[in-house]
Amino acid sequence: MASATRRVGAETSATRALIIDATAQLIREQGYAAISTRRVAARAGLKPSLVHYYFPTTDDLLVEVSRHGADQSDRMIEEALASDDPLRALWDFFMDTSRTAMALEFMAMANHREAVRRHMAEHSEAMRQRQVEILRHILGKRIERLEGFDPAGLSLVLAGIGRAIVMEEGLGVKTGHAEARQIVETWLEKLAPDQS
Amino acid sequence: MASATRRVGAETSATRALIIDATAQLIREQGYAAISTRRVAARAGLKPSLVHYYFPTTDDLLVEVSRHGADQSDRMIEEALASDDPLRALWDFFMDTSRTAMALEFMAMANHREAVRRHMAEHSEAMRQRQVEILRHILGKRIERLEGFDPAGLSLVLAGIGRAIVMEEGLGVKTGHAEARQIVETWLEKLAPDQS
Amino acid sequence: MASATRRVGAETSATRALIIDATAQLIREQGYAAISTRRVAARAGLKPSLVHYYFPTTDDLLVEVSRHGADQSDRMIEEALASDDPLRALWDFFMDTSRTAMALEFMAMANHREAVRRHMAEHSEAMRQRQVEILRHILGKRIERLEGFDPAGLSLVLAGIGRAIVMEEGLGVKTGHAEARQIVETWLEKLAPDQS
Amino acid sequence: MASATRRVGAETSATRALIIDATAQLIREQGYAAISTRRVAARAGLKPSLVHYYFPTTDDLLVEVSRHGADQSDRMIEEALASDDPLRALWDFFMDTSRTAMALEFMAMANHREAVRRHMAEHSEAMRQRQVEILRHILGKRIERLEGFDPAGLSLVLAGIGRAIVMEEGLGVKTGHAEARQIVETWLEKLAPDQS
DNA sequence: AATGAATGAGGATTCATTCAT
DNA sequence: GATGAATGAATCCTCATTCAT
Lengths: 196, 196, 196, 196
What we know:
homotetramer; mainly alpha; Arc Repressor Mutant, subunit A; Tetracycline Repressor, domain 2; 2 domains; 10 helices; elongated; disordered N terminus; DNA-binding; DNA-binding transcription factor activity (chains A, B, C, D)
């Protein structure tokens, strides 16, 4: 990958990590549009040029932050899929406000940054497929309890509803949230592992 | 409202409309981050200062564009809710790529522009409530055919799934889309008006 | 021409002229590599952003300065070609240190700036052809007094020798200059209008 | 000389040669304005700091590259002057596009870099004098066949015409080139060694 | 002999906004 | 209504150079 060769400074550099952290913080707090060399540097307590020393272009930085977020998501999903009630754990994952808000920022960013879009697309696709693979295995015949559902569709549906709720909460909208959660709840119960 | 007092130029000016249109076009094509007085002016074939003449601040302009988009959505929703198969019409509305993409841009914008956020929140809430009101009336007892669903939840669920599909399509992700549409299809059929 | 549409500010603006002058001065004194928005602005006593207001890109500015220099050259050449001894006047033109030095800067600049290269090429070609046209008319049969010469070749030869002398003088080289001038002198005398 | 004391690393280091080569290449391809520690390092496949290790300042590097080019020119000239038809060989040397283009870059550079200017001046002067010395010896009385010419003047005239042609070719100008070459051709023939 | 980290200055542009006309 | 001029702050990015290792 191109950015790999351009990477400056040890993978493990503390400064590098500091910059990535500061950027993620800023995105979380103020949205992706707030990202600029100066602001990132200020937040990290560094000089702007040092940011460019580690990340020659802003794209390089943002893709790296995206990558970190993706790694974290991957870990969370694996944990969820390995839990007792994988489906409910997955739903909790989709409802994780801070993570979803961050993901939405990267979605928006992807519209304007081809490099980010590429990475997000790859990761989203991989994530969905990983979920399908495990869900198919875990749910087995249970999925038939939800008429019309299949694992791939279920993954997208849960993700979409989760994102909508988080997005609207950020906006300050509330109507329908409890009801939507209730709908999902009904599904989760139907699909819950047999307790026998 | 502050922007009301600041508004310059007749509400009905053709130039005003031109500016709003140009802005909407730009947002649709290049995302909200591409908005700047200069670019809007260039697209509209006007001088930058004229944009400021009509919209003293960029916020004023964006809120106005948001308002226009909202009005259009309102009209589309009323049409949908008045159609033969309101639920399917509503789903088509949620799946309208261009409108949804635009709505997502405004969501992202809302993070950084308090004025836009306020307007988006008000409108989203109103839109949802209007849907609930009509759906409750239209669906009547039919909603019970979908176990666990209620009109408010249904509205959010459809919106969320629609947005997710459009968002992911923009990204280039495909897995699960057909399956998710199939899930919704099952619901729509169950809730379709009795043909008797 | 593209830059025409991009031109901001009245053609006749005093500020515009000020910027062009300042740029020409800087090139003359410090070479083209010394040109930067900041330096031009400082020399003109203006703010850097004002330079960009009049000349959106540095290329726009440099092409404009090149154009001004070309206009001046044109006037000088027309004057020379209209004089009593056009050939000697042309030679004096080629030996004009300040103008030639400036032309050399633009030649160097042309290597790195396509827009400048284009303009320089057009103008040089036109200038040469104008000289050929007039020389052919003026010299008539006299050119035969210099065996092997023809007007087009003569134009290039004089230009080349002139440039070389000016260039080397700038460098601090002296050997051969007087002798080269003597060679040209011999030609000029042979070609001088008959005194009869 | 300052640069002598500042020079670090063995005169004969392969890395040193690599850097000088890379710099020369870059100048040839992109002009001297494209030279920067980073770009040179990238081209040479080295780390930027290593360039500074060998050449503490950019001036040091450029003077060295200039010196190498000069050495090469010297060798080419000695070869030319030792050939059967030294004058024609000299003319071929002046018409060598790549070398002349490079020389012009150094001329332009000399305007802004005193160290380079000094070196260029010394070398040009020496080169001219060496040519005069040999031409005087070689041409002997033959020079009288060209009325008004003398070896020093001839050297400058050939150099000037050659440079002008190469310079204009780079620009894309063509008028008069063939004719100027013809003029020189006439001289060369007149001065060719007697075949008797 | 080599290199990673750091920095301050400067590069071209773009921006929203103000103001006088 | 409309516009040209002006500006200060911000954008990303590149640079030569220094220094400690």
